[in-house]
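Sample entry (206 residues):
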Amino acid sequence: MNVHHNPAFKDCYVMQREDIERFADTLADGFSQYNLFRYVCNGRYDHCKMSRFWAVSIALYSEKAICIADSKEVNSVLIYIPPGVKEPDSLSYLNAGILKMGLRRLFRMLRSKAEVQNVAKRYKADDDGYLFAFATRLDKQGQHYGKPLMAAFLRYLDAIGEGCYLETFKPENVGFYEQFSFQLKEQIPVKSGNLTLFAMHRPKSK
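Predicted structure, serialized as C-alpha cells:
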C-alpha cells in the first residue's frame, strides 16, 4: 500500500521491499517477552524462527498493508491491515517458506490463531482495519519510539474515518491503548497456552 506521500506519515519511515528482514527482526525482538509467542515456541523463545514468521507475514501483506517504523533505524514497527484485505491462503504461506519456523511452532501458532480469529469476529466490523503488529525493540522500549508512531497512525485513521480492532495478551498494554481511544471490549481466557486475550476496538472518527 503506497503511503509514502501521506502527510500523516511524514515523520515516519515507510517500509521498502528490501526492509522486510529488518522489520521482521525488530518485531521478533520486541515480542520476545510476549506470552503468546513464548507459548508458540514452547517456552523457549527462538528469535530466528519467529523472525522468519514475521518476514513471511510481512512479505505476504506488504503490498496491501501499511508498514511503518519510527526511522530508518527501525527501532519500532507498526503494521496495519486495512478493511477488506483478505488473509493469504495456506498455499501462499507454504510457498513463502512458513515451514522454516518449524512444524511444532506452526501448529501452536495455528491453534492460537483460530481462537484469536473467533474473538475478532465479535468485535471487528467489515469496515474496520486490524492492527496486525506493533512492537519496539527491547533495548529501545520506554524511550519514546512507539508513541509517535502510534500517534501518526491514528492521525491517518481519523483522516480517512476508519475504525480499528486489535488484540493483546499483555494486561499492561490495555492502558497504553486506552490512551489512544481504544476501548476494551472483552477479556477472554484462551485455551492455547492458558493465556488471556484482551480484545480492543477504536471506533471510526465522526
